[in-house]
Amino acid sequence: MWSNAASCPARTAPTASIRLELLAGVTGMSQRSELARELTRALIRCHSVTPQDGGALAVLEEQLKPAGFAIYRLRFSEPGAPDVDNLYARIGNGAPYLVFAGHTDVVPPGDTAAWRFDPFSAEIAEGEVWGRGAVDMKGAVAAFTAAALDYVATHQPLKGSIGLLITGDEEGPSVNGTVKLLQWAAKQGEHFDHCLVGEPTNVEALGDTIKIGRRGSLTGTLVVHGTQGHVAYPQRADNPIPHLLRLLTALIAPPLDDGSAEFDPSHLEILTVDVGNPATNVIPATARARFNIRFNDLWTPQTLSAEIDRRAAAVAGGARYELSFDPCNALAFVTARDHFTDLAVEAIAAHSGRIAHFSTSGGTSDARFIRNYCPVIEFGLVGATMHKIDERVPLADIDTLADIYSEILERYFDQAPV
């Protein structure tokens, strides 16, 4: 535990001083690792809780611009959602174009007194760097930035193009971040051939998992209307709660499906059941529930909502109810396996010693937007401590991840046509 008054380190403003001048000359593994480590720490020190940038994008710009990357800082707005700062960087003019994508925003640290160190101090202890965003996903952003800088410094002229798509809205509503950054890039005539997102995909050890797809996410609301009355005279009332329970049971069973070739079975989880009745002698007038369905590629939001409607109607009886669904921007998708997925597996094995397996599990990510523009895979750090108190990442994993990204760059452009 740390104390603000006694031992909280001073907030360190990120500066250009961490740039390794040796990248302008001969570089190697140790320099790339050093840059990845220092960039990770500089990014963690930025208070970039969604939707705040906290200086994180400036840290990246200070490294990328002197290396020749064209930098675009873009703020997007929309009524009802916070403004968000984003960064797009590109170097090179031709194809193939490999773009790395990620986010510098983080979830709130929670109870800061419960942390071993100040969550924005980026302390190093026991071979790990500690802080909010270390795993999700400032460590990966730092690693692919260091890999890209290293590659650019040692491969001139470039055989293609390298880019970065960085948002500050992934942990938030995802309205003014990647989705609009992609729309902006398309209007500029930008075309991506492949994308790698640095989300924390690994389960037990670095190198065990590549995400090649994501499940969809659909959220719904069920409201049942009854008739309020005295509990001693139930015949004069209509309790909505039994109706709600019957309807919810029908939504859960039987299972929605048995899974598909690439996905586990879809599942519905009840999130809340609310009546708002403080009295012990009153039958309530209304009961409501919220639920979320993580669905596979057997469904679309339209077919899934129709199935939920059908299930509710089949058991409704005389219940008066309303069933509605939130707008859905998270569809299930799978990236086809090709030379890019193969070379990623080979690069990961070369530096981790593990053969990564393909997965579509977990929550949503910004890959759901990118897949509309180019094939996309996800590979980052081990997600064991993401969003938790004392989030942290081994320094050795940052080193290895930077090496893997560097190997992917080497193989990607080596295989490109002359």
TrEMBL record:
Active-site residues per Swiss-Prot or TrEMBL entry: D105, E170 (proton acceptor)
Cofactor note: Binds 2 Zn(2+) or Co(2+) ions per subunit.
Entry coiled-coil feature ranges: none
Annotated pathway: Amino-acid biosynthesis; L-lysine biosynthesis via DAP pathway; LL-2,6-diaminopimelate from (S)-tetrahydrodipicolinate (succinylase route): step 3/3
Keyword Hydrolase: yes
Enzyme Commission code: 3.5.1.18
Keywords: Amino-acid biosynthesis, Cobalt, Diaminopimelate biosynthesis, Hydrolase, Lysine biosynthesis, Metal-binding, Zinc
Enzyme category, top tier: hydrolase
Annotated residues for binding of Zn(2+) 2: D136, E171, H387
Residue spans crossing the bilayer: none
Domain Peptidase M20 dimerisation: 212-315
One Pfam family linked to the record: M20_dimer
Catalytic activity: N-succinyl-(2S,6S)-2,6-diaminopimelate + H2O = (2S,6S)-2,6-diaminopimelate + succinate
UniProt superkingdom: Bacteria
GO biological process, one term: lysine biosynthetic process via diaminopimelate
Residues given in the record as Zn(2+) 1 binding sites: H103, D136, E199
Record GO terms (molecular function): acetylornithine deacetylase activity; cobalt ion binding; succinyl-diaminopimelate desuccinylase activity; zinc ion binding
Subunit composition and interactions: Homodimer.
Family: Belongs to the peptidase M20A family. DapE subfamily.
Protein purpose: Catalyzes the hydrolysis of N-succinyl-L,L-diaminopimelic acid (SDAP), forming succinate and LL-2,6-diaminopimelate (DAP), an intermediate involved in the bacterial biosynthesis of lysine and meso-diaminopimelic acid, an essential component of bacterial cell walls.
Protein name: Succinyl-diaminopimelate desuccinylase
Organism: Methylovirgula ligni
Gene transcribed to yield this protein: dapE
